[in-house]
Amino acid sequence: MDISQKAKKIIFFMWLLVVPIGICLVYLSSPTKPNDWDHYIYFLILALLTTIFPFFISGALIVLVQWVNLAIFLKFGILAELIAMQLCIIPIVFHMKISKETRYKLYYNSFMFFLISIICGSIVLWMGYKIETLVINEILLYSSIYMLLNIILNHLFLYFREVYTGLKPKFFTKDFGWDFICLIITLPFGISIYILEGYVGPIAFVLLGVPFLAITLLIRMYSDSEKVNADLNKASEFGHQLAERMTTTEVLDMFLKRMSDMFQFDAGYIVDNVDGEFLILRAIENGENKELEYVHEDIKYSLAGKGYEKGEPILYSKQAEWEHMKPPFLADDMQSVMCVPIYRNQRIEGVLVLAARAKFAFESYQLKIVHLLCSYFAVSLEKARFVKEAVEKSEVCDLTKIYNYRFLDKQLKLDMLKLNNGVYRTVSLIMMDIDKFKAVNDTYGHHSGNLILQEFAKVIQHEIGSSGTVARYGGEEFVILLPNYSKLQAKNIAEQLRRKVEQTPFIVPLDLGEVTREEIIFITASIGVSTAPEDSDEGMSLLRNADRALYIGAKQAGRNRVAEYVK
Fold first, then answer.
1. What number of helices (H) and strands (E) belong to the chain?
2. Cα separation, 179 vs 169, whole angstroms
3. Is this structure's pTM higher than 0.70?
């Protein structure tokens, strides 16, 4: 739950005005004082021990302390139970992993449980309960009322807290259901230890308290193993999802996003090492992607660089353990940090750094799961690189090493889509055809023809550079896509290309005769130009228009010339 600084201040002042003064008033009005509470220390120790072993059921935090506090109330009254509950808040809050930003939860829980203790105790006393009574019917009746009121008030306070912070909560949640089940289970224990202690003294804590703590510990161990299994299942599913991503960008974007869903961290960084230089490949802070740049040396001598050198996952539970090697990208309020190496082909490529503001935010088993996920990540990146190389290879002409028709078709559709969406103003297309290329093959051989195609492609690519896309359309035909070029600009470029081709000497081996020798030849090209949206707003029509201009306006008009499409 994220609330404003104003709300946090209001919670603190509510606590300050109510709890300290309220405890003093309860102390002054209480009919019994601590020096009258025989064996209270045993109850208090048992209550604190029960808060040390909380566990999770279906994501709900269960702390079985109310049965002990019930016994304390039955024997000593409101003041004793109030003190015990306030002391029990300390280990409970520790398990909630309170940070500076969430410290308000400590004050709110203290305020909430203070009022619950006062209200529940006062109602039960008003209804007629007598402290330290051993009348079994009265004990059963008032204990049930006390515990039921406790649960209802607890969830009412939580409900109003979420309403106040702008959420839309439900009162009857799964947490309420689990608390009610725990009431049914623990109520007999609270009544039993109260009655047994009244008859046999402190030995009751051995007879009932120790077995209950042992059972709680076993449930905690089972709960932890279930949580580990659940996280492992999520990690396996995560690995499959990563493997399905086909591009490097998709893998990188998904990795940190899903990591933030699985683990509660405030900042995450993928630190890469490229040619011996450290850089931040991806970063996420408070749920938002960040673009970060830092000096190599600053990262090298930080915990990220040390983790890279060591090559083993490291877990830091508080800032004091790593502040002497603080990375420049970590905020000053971070406490818990994971530093996990990323291996590819048994070679470390980088490190993953996860950080949280709370101390002890990560558990040791989570470090192992993150290490496993980093392996999935590295494999998925490797696969994405292979896919990229395979796609690029399938979209490049083996002979000329420029794009082929497959890529041209895809790029043409993309450029026309940008044109129609207003990203581009115009898209011009130049189609070039080498004049009398069949005669070249017949005279000098197909090997020489291939050499000419290769050199021809180099000439065009060099002239166009990054201004457009150059592709081999098929045979001796080549196409150039020029986004944001008008027809006049495209015609000028086409004319420059025509002159460049005409003036370029091509060296070919003449090996069809008895003696092999090299010969210099000159070639020419006919060129057609078409522009969208002036001539067409559809990609294939643009291509056909340029082809028509090439053959009618250039080839049939005598070759070695540039022609534009005219409707």
1. 18, 15
2. 17
3. no
